[in-house]
């Protein structure tokens, strides 16, 4: 009788032991967080993403790159990652991590960009437009053309920003100033990336232009002053719609094109 009871007790112990082997031990390390794709414990940072006047609370691993952040945001804001521009103290590069950018808790990160169908609708060219672009390739350099010479002959503006050739710098946080337009008047460029707008300011007015409406950008260095460029922003379907800006510092040319057109269109 005693041995029977002992046997039953022993079987129960074996069953309990076998059951415990099937149930994995639960610890804080293997419990998925609500934001598992972006939260990595002590490496995570809480910040705000601002897109199209909407704000999103984000928790993301600070060791992850801007490209990985774009991939995560694609499903959140509906903009393909290759059309996103992430702004934090200037235009962020894809290979930079949030730690590299010094994104801290509570920081605001701006994202601009449009859905692919919207961009393609604006940028699509008809056969006539393509022929015009091909024809323009054969033309003489901008700085030799009469319409541009009239402005260049005035000389370098006294208050022009320092130009640096063979250098690529991110856009500064302040407007680009000290340049001239085709009438020889002073002009400044302000990049309102959070609004996806380019502000072209003169003494008399400031024109606010949607970046999506800028079809293309052309630029050439000024002969004898290669640290500066002539730059044309095409606002319509033909070359006649280009807004010309002179004495653009060379180090900002690529960043201007990238900020407005996106790297996928360069």
From TrEMBL:
Q: Which Pfam family would be a valid example here?
A: ubiquitin
Its domain of life reads Eukaryota
Q: Which CDD domains match?
A: Ubl_UBFD1
Per UniProt, residues of the Ubiquitin-like domain are 47-118
Annotated region (Disordered), positions in chain? 1-35
Q: Gene3D superfamilies, per this entry?
A: Phosphatidylinositol 3-kinase Catalytic Subunit, Chain A, domain 1
GO MF term (any one):
RNA binding
Query: InterPro entries from the entry?
Result: UBFD1, UBFD1_C, Ubiquitin-like_dom, Ubiquitin-like_domsf
Q: Which SMART domains match?
A: UBQ (SM00213)
Mind telling me what this protein is named?
A: Ubiquitin-like domain-containing protein
Q: Which organism is it from?
A: Parthenolecanium corni
Q: What is the lineage of its organism?
A: Eukaryota, Metazoa, Ecdysozoa, Arthropoda, Hexapoda
């Amino acid at each position: 009788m005693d041995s029977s009871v002992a046997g039953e007790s022993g079987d129960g112990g074996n069953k309990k032991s076998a059951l415990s082997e099937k149930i994995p031990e639960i610890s804080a390390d293997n419990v998925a967080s609500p934001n598992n794709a972006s939260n990595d414990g002590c490496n995570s940072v809480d910040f705000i993403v601002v897109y199209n006047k909407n704000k999103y609370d984000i928790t993301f691993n600070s060791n992850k790159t801007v490209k990985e952040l774009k991939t995560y945001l694609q499903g959140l804001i509906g903009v393909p990652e290759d059309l996103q521009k992430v702004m934090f103290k200037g235009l962020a590069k894809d290979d930079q991590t949030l730690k590299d950018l010094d994104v801290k808790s509570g920081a605001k990160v701006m994202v601009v960009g449009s859905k692919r169908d919207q961009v393609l609708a604006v940028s699509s060219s008809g056969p006539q437009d393509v022929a015009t672009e091909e024809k323009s390739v054969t033309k003489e350099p901008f700085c030799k053309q009469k319409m541009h010479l009239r402005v260049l002959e005035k000389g370098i503006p006294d208050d022009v920003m320092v130009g640096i050739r063979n250098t690529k710098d991110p856009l500064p946080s302040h407007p680009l100033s000290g340049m001239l337009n085709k009438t020889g008047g002073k002009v400044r460029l302000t990049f309102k990336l959070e609004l996806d707008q380019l502000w072209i300011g003169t003494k008399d007015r400031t024109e606010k232009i949607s970046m999506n409406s800028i079809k293309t950008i052309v630029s050439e260095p000024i002969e004898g002053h290669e640290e500066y460029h002539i730059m044309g922003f095409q606002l319509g379907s033909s070359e006649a719609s280009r807004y010309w800006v002179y004495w653009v510092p060379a180090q900002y040319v690529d960043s201007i094109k990238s900020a407005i057109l996106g790297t996928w269109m360069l």
